[in-house]
Amino acid sequence: MGRKSNRRNSKHSGGESPKASQLARKIKSFLDNHYGEEFSSKQIIKKLEMRDAISKGAVEPILIKLVENGTIAKSPRNYYSSKKDPEFIIGKVDYVNPRFAYIIPDDPEATDGDILVKEADLKQALDDDRVRVMVYPTKGRSGRSEGRVLEILERARDEFVGRVEISPRFAFVVPDFKKMHKDIFVHRGDLKGAQHNEKVVVKLTEWREGDKNPTGKVTRVLGKAGVHEVEIHSIMAEFGLPFEYPKEAEAEANAIPDTISPKEIKVRKDFRNITTFTIDPADAKDFDDAISYRRLENGNLEIGVHIADVTHYVQPKTALEKEAYDRATSVYLVDRTIPMLPEHLSNGLCSLRPNEDKLTFSCVFEMDEEAKVLSHWIGRTIIHSDRRFVYEDAQENIDKQSGDFFEELTHLNELAKKIRKRRFQNGAVNFETVEVKFKLDEKGTPLGLIVKERKDIHKLIEEFMLLANKHVAEFIFKKHNGMDTFVYRTHDAPDMDRLEIFSGFAKRFGHQLKLDSERQVSSSLNKLMDEIQGKPEQNVLEQLAIRSMAKAKYTTEPKGHFGLAFAHYTHFTSPIRRYPDMMVHRLLQHYLDGGKSPEAEPWEKKCIHSSDREKRAADAERASIKYKQVEYMALAEEKDYEGIVSGVTEWGVFVEITETKCEGMVRVADMTDDYYDFDERNMRLVGSRSKKMITLGDKVWVRVVNTDIDRRTIDLEFAENDEKPTRSRTSR
């Protein structure tokens, strides 16, 4: 565990008594922080660990004086208690380590920051639980507000994935989830046949007051730990991802006819005779966007962004709709996709496959040669895609100036570059994070790492999708100046304090940020992103920059999008894999049909649910990547690796290995050359004796000493140590 400097001031040791005023403050603070409890003078002496006779003798007179001036209360039994009312807040638990958690208030204005709660005061609350907390009137030694949990209002989860450890008389499940710090006791009769070291899903059944560990019951046996399929299923179960589609919803999907009726075609704008194609990754099957291109008689261009018309097939109050809402997004793990919609829809009816008539919802632009939008039209259409491109093939046709539709692709690329240039001139921020993909064998074992390269063709598709999303949002907003209920994708301006800290780290690599205005922030960040391309610090600084930004979210509030520099923005272009896009399609058609604005509250609840599901998907995707990174480093060559310090906490230093983009930790407890204090403000560790500093962004050399697939962790040590330990490949 990490350590903050906590050395006691020894000024009063050896029998010397503190001043009466200091002792009075200490007693009052103790009683205030134990609101609702009563203590005798002897108990107060014991709790405050008073050992010298002078201090002990001073307690009773001080208590009497505090009672006389109305500062504390005294009961008929000669017990003392606080008279100062504490605050009570409701929030979510962030269980950072086994010793304490933070409570993040529902109302950020309710307190001065998050509330620190020690493990003994959590009342058996677990990570992400909603709780009611009593906030102590005085702050703790850390300078933070502290408190204790009074009541668990809502459990975030009661099922956990973990590895079974069986002894002759009992069994425990050791959870995979890093923020579950308690092993779960399981009676041998509740193991459901699970064997020692197998992965299981366990459901909490009881946690009695005073018990150190909760009791649970195995509900699903996943299989032998370390096997690829078992580990992926473990991640799915850990994040509550579904293993199969409900039969009722599947049946509804399969019952939808493949043919399009003449009546349906008649009410749509027909684009079937206009050049149209899709451009997607090589392994994609759900093609939810297509682009059409034609030259108009007036010399201008007509560019159509055509999106799969999912809501034509998925109707409200159906099993399909219910399941799509519950999932809210497709999830992309390292080796599979967990789709939002059944395969018959996602890869079949809705997918804009080539040489098939398809129903679409479109945003069609009339543009000049400078890519300026002269007019646009939004409505339901029918298309017939002429070609399915993978990104690499489309890029090759542009590069070689030959092949199918190379002239159209080239012209679209020129237009996209002009749109992109204007977007950045208007203040958009260019975040292009490094994406790593694993090459797996048939058993799922990682054979190598591939860093995905973003080329012009990727940016081409991105720009036209952004353009469609922007115009759909603006179209609805402008109808009644934002009074109509709609689903927006918003992104708040960054917190300047966090940006100042990030700016300090960037400066260590020789990069200067200007933060005087939002426009300066954008241009300065873009300059930084250009400068770090291909450099060792690229991934670390990109990730730190993103962390210093606000999180994008779905909401009915018509706010802007800082990162894109759009006054209004939505998600319209991916309804096969995102439920918010389905919401947008429904509201959009409702307004196109002349409908009145519905109540915002039900739509806002759906937005919050969708944002939560988006986070769950991102966490699961990261967990699957981390699992493969741990496995990859367990199999990698034993040698010293160059890395960059990517995070600093009181309990360890995160290092990203430059060669493999894998992140591990050097634990403070294993750094035996000095005693290190954590400087939170500057995100660094400082050696007490040597004054050696380990800071975010430092270039270091490390070696792998342990890999733990269960916990998905890579333990490192700094390579300056002379003795090389034997590496532990996996910890079970």
UniProtKB/TrEMBL annotation:
Keyword annotations of the record: Cytoplasm, Exonuclease, Hydrolase, Nuclease, RNA-binding
Main subcellular localisation: cytoplasm
Organism: Algoriphagus limi
Compartmental location: Cytoplasm
UniProt cross-references to SUPFAM superfamilies, sorted A to Z: Nucleic acid-binding proteins
Enzyme class, spelled out: hydrolase
InterPro entries: CSD (IPR011129), CSD2 (IPR040476), NA-bd_OB-fold (IPR012340), RNase_B_OB_dom (IPR013223), RNase_II/R (IPR001900), RNase_II/R_CS (IPR022966), RNase_II/RNase_R (IPR004476), RNase_R (IPR011805)
Pfam families, sorted: CSD2, OB_RNB, RNB, S1
Catalytic activity: Exonucleolytic cleavage in the 3'- to 5'-direction to yield nucleoside 5'-phosphates
Source organism, top-level taxon: Bacteria
Protein name: Ribonuclease R
UniProt similarity note: Belongs to the RNR ribonuclease family. RNase R subfamily.
Span list, region Disordered: 1-23
EC number: 3.1.13.1
